[in-house]
Specification:
This protein is an alpha+beta fold. It has 15 helices and eight strands.
């Protein structure tokens, strides 16, 4: 093989490895299988299929297309299978990859790749998983730093161990191929400089594939951390409830125990329902019907506290919206805000109105009151910062869950009341679509 053809083959091999690794990384199924903490036999076989189907085809192309030797990266594939999956999968993968070579009379391919799979699998057991993902053939070449580091704290440099074993195994392949021509495929070079490049090529190819997948792994880990952070943030937000409401409710129950024990018992049950809903683990979304049931318990308690003559509740609910999924504990903070800041300051109280209706593929939910309104906001929409913990709580949750797909507006007229409108995509409960 000429020097030019050999160099081109080595470069194309790197390109093939990078292209295959990138193509596989785009598959969600491959990502799930590759980064799974535990895999059963069906998952392992599916993961092997992702590797072996395209790369066995590459071996076949190498045996049938003249001078297209770069398509065969079976050595590197078996190394990856051993490092990432285990010796059994690597031996099976080496066996499958050697089949096109056996048809081409390369009879040593099967025993060599089976042995290579066993060696790679043992290496995968010895080296920690994080060090495998961080593998690079460009190890610290400073002999002084290497000696100094190991004199202070002697240890096995597993990165160097991986590089050393991959190179030794490639040298063994070349030697067997030279001793038994046409019985095992390997690249051969005349000069020592090119031979060293050939020996290092599998390590670089393995490193390229690991770098591509490790970048994806780190990105998925960051996404998972962001998801967990958002879940924790949402959980903290949706569990908030005004402590004054609890104290006032308990005081009301205490005052009713002697005079109206049945009503006190009813309020206790409703308060227990509210606390149970706040404290239990639940989904971030619930049907609007369930959310309204939660707010009914809250409103029933408030009506008892303030009296039916001072707090009136009206509802205008579109039946089509009852099974639409909405963020859990969405309405209670808004209703509490209307009662506390809108109706409570009024001597004669007022009315809280809850409305919902469909608008195409979106749902509009409104909470209105005819209370004192927000001073200084005559007929205007409030800025996104808003007033009150309840409104900011709801706004922040909508931002987290929907981003720009959610609309949250507050319109207030001093002395006439406040209207809070929420518009979100209408996603129906599964089974109701």
């Amino acid at each position: 093989m000429t020097t030019t053809l050999l160099l081109i083959t080595l470069l194309v091999k790197l390109g093939v490895a990078a292209a295959v690794a990138s193509a596989l990384a785009r598959s969600r199924t491959f990502q799930r299988l590759l980064f799974a903490e535990r895999r059963g036999p069906p998952q392992t076989i599916a993961l092997l299929a992702f590797f072996l189907v395209p790369l066995t085809l590459g071996v076949w192309v190498r045996t049938t297309v003249p001078n297209f030797l770069a398509a065969d990266i079976s050595f590197e594939t078996v190394m990856l299978l051993g490092l990432l999956i285990g010796p059994g999968s690597a031996i099976l993968g080496g066996t499958v990859l050697s089949l096109p070579a056996l048809v081409h009379h390369e009879y040593l391919a099967l025993p060599f790749y089976a042995t290579l799979g066993l060696a790679a699998g043992v290496l995968g057991w010895v080296v920690e998983r994080e060090e495998i993902w961080e593998f690079t053939p460009f190890v610290d070449l400073s002999l002084y730093r290497w000696i100094r580091r190991n004199l202070r704290k002697p240890r096995i440099d597993r990165q160097f161990l991986m590089l050393f074993l991959i190179v030794v195994l490639e040298i063994a392949r070349e030697w067997i191929s030279s001793a038994y021509p046409n019985r095992l495929f390997a690249l051969h070079a005349a000069s020592w400089g090119l031979r060293i490049l050939v020996w290092l090529s599998p390590a670089v190819t393995v490193g390229v594939a690991l770098k591509v997948w490790n970048a994806l792994r780190l990105e998925l880990k960051l996404e998972e951390q962001r998801r967990l952070l958002l879940e924790a943030r949402l959980d903290a937000l949706q569990r908030q409830i005004n402590p004054h409401f609890l104290f006032n409710t308990l005081n009301s129950i205490a005052s009713l125990v002697r005079t109206k024990p049945e009503l006190a018992r009813e309020m206790t049950v409703k308060l227990a329902n509210i606390l149970r809903a706040l404290l239990r683990d639940h989904d971030s979304h619930v049907p609007l019907s369930q959310e309204l049931k939660f707010t009914d318990d809250y409103l029933d308690i408030e009506v008892v506290r303030f009296g039916p003559e001072k707090l009136r509740v009206e509802k205008d609910i579109d039946p089509q919206t009852m099974e639409v999924l909405v963020p859990s504990i969405l309405l209670q903070p808004l209703i509490e805000n209307s009662i506390k800041h809108g109706l409570e300051p009024r001597i004669h109280g007022g009315t809280v109105t809850v409305r919902s209706r469909m608008q195409g593929n979106r749902v509009l939910i409104e909470v209105a009151d005819d209370g004192v309104g927000i001073q200084g906001r005559q007929g205007s929409k409030l800025p996104r910062t808003g007033n009150g913990v309840g409104m900011n709580n709801v706004r922040e949750r909508l931002d987290v869950l929907y981003g720009r797909d959610a609309r949250f507006t507050v319109v207030s007229n001093p002395g006439r009341g406040t209207l809070v409108s929420i518009e979100i995509p209408a996603k129906l409960l599964r089974g109701q679509e």
